[in-house]
Amino acid sequence: MDLLIKNGVVYDPINGIDGEVMDIAIKDDKIVEKVDESKAYVIDASNKLVMPGGVDLHSHIAGSKCNVGRMLRPEDHYKDVEPKTQVKRSGVGYSVPSSFTIGYRYAILGYTTVFEPANPPLKMLHCHHEFKDIPILDKGCFVMFGNNWFVMEYLRDNKLDECAAYVAWTLNATKGYAIKLVDPGCVEAWKWGDVEFLDVLWGRPEEIDEPVPRFGVASREIIRGLCKVNKILHLPHPIHVHANGLGTPGNYQTTIDTMDSVKDLAEEGRPIIHLTHVQFNGYAGSDWITIRSGAHEIMKYVNANKHVSIDLGQVIFTDTTTMTGDGPFEYKLHLLTKNKWTNSDVESEEGAGLVPIHYKKSNFVHATMWTIGLELALLAKDPWRIFMTTDHPNGGPFTHYPRVIAWLMSKEARKRTLDKISKRARSRSDLDNIDREYSFYEIATVTRAAHAKILGLKDKGHLGEGADADVAIYDINPREVNPSRDYKKVRKALSKANFTIKEGEIVVKDGDIVKSIEGRTYWVKPDLPGDLMDAMESDLARKFRDYYTVEMENFKIHDRFIT
Fold first, then answer.
1. Cα(535)–Cα(117) distance, rounded to whole angstroms?
2. Helix (H, G, I), strand (E, B) or coil at 284
3. How far, in Å, CA of 271 to CA of 281, rounded?
4. Distance, CA of 426 to CA of 416 (rounded, Å)
5. What stretch of H or E contains 166?
6. Low-confidence ranges of the chain (pLDDT < 70)
7. How does pLDDT run across 363-374, given as a tens digit for each residue?
8. Whole-prediction pTM value?
9. Which residue in 17, 361, 428, 525 has the fewest CB atoms around it within 10 Å?
């Protein structure tokens, strides 16, 4: 049916709408100029906050590591149980929810589009199976290439066109959306047990020019090579980079070096590299005793250079599960915490690891991590190049997004937490001295508009004519509330949407799921000259026989399988 949202207080940064009272008309699954009010279902949004459906470019929601996390942590299942209703499937899980539960909880927050940020090519079929089980949300997945044997061989031999052909073939074969790099080169060294090589990098996290054993190509060359490939293929999203040295004191310099490594490749007007969960790569100091925030140094670079964008990876003080393709980091975390650990080696492609963790306010390192994420956001001059995430579930479950929003919008909310954290961490942070408070317009930018723009999703993240009819309505009047003072009201309102509308369908009403629909999956199909692809495929067929446990044809995911 047609929908008409009347008199809402609308925030739509892509179209420059900053708190205007206006109507939103929906016909079928699109936003239109107008509908016949007498024949439409009318939602009275008077004195209510209206924004586009939320978009999250980095949240670990599907794939084999999520399933391993569920098996590793049975104790996580009982913390948050989702009961079965006439509309919902039952589910469990606090930091690693079951697949149906992920869709419901995101929708209740007002989110409608979420991207899984890291899966090895060989595991992508599993990822798509889980996508089919996540209701409501539109989804997509970034494919990992940063430790791929074939990529490193092509780049070592200066075969950039062949590397581009391989990446294009793999993205199409696995139905992936973007190029992901996780700890480029280092995971491969870890898989072979090259302790000497890793000791060099762990001791000097700023070093990205150390050749990877057996491949003779350094992290810098992998980053630059895949950035060039991204440009050749005209992919919609920049290379999505989990930088080297994650979780290591002094790694802020690695982050800056990584961003600067592709500066000469920059294009006017758009980022060409996205650094993800930068809080985990924002540590200054030389060891765990001297660790401090490196956010000022990082943001000085980001603010001065438009070729880069970042997301936060904000820490929440809670129990959660860390999971990443950065296997060596997870082993280090296991040694530091003595918590249980699991590790994975994915043939000639990537690796991964998982370790549970509980972030505590009293812990000096944890508290420092918490301050870094907020400093990154509050020091940003351009909210279109910074994105609110918790790197779910690494910094904390996505269900805590309203809490992060409250911290961004209220200095008082930040101070209440600062008063409870480690005094040593507070003394080494500049968070006390930052007065900036985000507006609703900026929140709409860093949780919706900017995500859609950097992903190249022209129909998402806005409420203009022709956009997908994804809308979130919250029971709070942004014209009357003062987020700086009333941050608890903001947090409460954003925790349960009054309405979430997905493709013109009301899926959430008064914070409850009222309809469950199937979302779409986005993937890319890069186009390259046929002769180049033919030559690459001939070479690749040989490599599959030599290196893989599956046949080349069985590796492919057919179009008909994807929604």
1. 30
2. strand
3. 19
4. 12
5. helix 160-174
6. 195, 197-206, 563
7. 999 999 999 999
8. 0.96
9. 525
